[in-house]
Amino acid sequence: MKTRIIYPKMWFDEKFATCSMEAKVLFFYLISNDHLCLTPYLHITDRQIMFDTGLTINQLQTGKEELMTLKWCFFSENWIYHNHDCAYIDYEGRDRVLEAKQKELDNIPLKVQEYFNPLITRYKPVLNPKSKTINYKSEILNPKSKTEELRKKAHSLIGV
């Protein structure tokens, strides 16, 4: 089973709060369903979405239109491009992950890629914005000596 990282900040997003129930259900389904891959592209039929979510055809169309207006997801011929940063979907990783991701990208029809490319404003989450690793271990050479020092100070203050 594949896993996804979904950031809880979406619940505090003012735009998400004002979305219709249909758009919320559809959006949450699109970032958490079992058909997701290593790329932000998703191939799934409306019939499958309606079956899994319980949305009617009218509710699905309402949700799609709203998500496209917000530019969070784009839809074309049973293909979806996820364009929001609330979920970490566009995976990066080691060679094997990159090879698998490239294989998935190669299987996406060219006309689908050409349709989505001008629409994409993909946000890439910065997981560690700090430029250097912080490691304080080298500063503390012998933690026991500090403990002993503090113990001696405490004993001298209470007169033992």
Structure, explained:
- This protein is 46% helix and 9% strand.
- It is mainly alpha-helical and 160 residues long.
- It has one domain (5-119): Orthogonal Bundle (Arc Repressor Mutant, subunit A).
- The strands form two sheets. The protein has a three-stranded antiparallel beta sheet with strand order 2-4-3, sandwiched between helices. It has a two-stranded antiparallel ribbon with strand order 1-5.
- The protein is elongated, with a radius of gyration of 24 Å.
- The N and C termini lie far apart (62 Å).
Please summarize what this structure is.
By secondary structure, this protein is mainly alpha-helical.
Order of helices and strands: EHHEHHEEEHHH
How many independent structural domains? 1
Question: How would you sum up the global shape?
Answer: elongated
Overall residue-averaged pLDDT value: 78
Strand order of the largest sheet: 2-4-3
In CATH, the architecture is Orthogonal Bundle
Low-confidence blocks of residues: 123-129
Percentage of β-strand residues: 5-15%
Features:
160 residues, mainly alpha, Arc Repressor Mutant, subunit A, two-stranded antiparallel sheet, 7 helices, 5 strands, 46% helix, elongated
How do the helices and strands line up, and which of them pair or pack?
Blueprint: E1 5-6, H1 14-18, H2 21-32, E2 41-43, H3 46-53, H4 57-69, E3 73-76, E4 79-82, E5 87-88, H5 95-106, H6 110-116, H7 143-158
Antiparallel strand pairs: 1-5, 2-4, 3-4
Helix pairs in contact: 2-4
